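Extended Data, panel c. Modelled sequence:
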Amino acid sequence: MFTGLVCIPIVKTSSILNAELHRKIEHLGTVSSIVVDAGGCTLTIADSVAILGDCHIGDSIAVNGACLTVTEFNVDEQGGWFKVWLANETLDRTDLGVSSAVLQSKSADG
């Protein structure tokens, strides 16, 4: 399990089409946790209250260019956080897999 601080670009989108048409960074969040399981990993991204005002479970948020589904969120803790689960295929096909591996190895190194 990773815990640390890493800024990651976030674009809140109402649809994948919207993300494709309007690629602008709305916010920089902080990866506060990466939990790996057999099927992929769960990212917790903190310091994101600015984009969570109208957030709902199931909303799509583009993280580092990949549209991910919000599985959980809280506007009151850690400056507002949300969780997304990334399947192994998403990790393989995006730079989020490389980012996750680097972050985990840095965490293991101390």
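Helices lie at 16-21, 88-93, 96-109. This feature is highlighted in the accompanying rendering.
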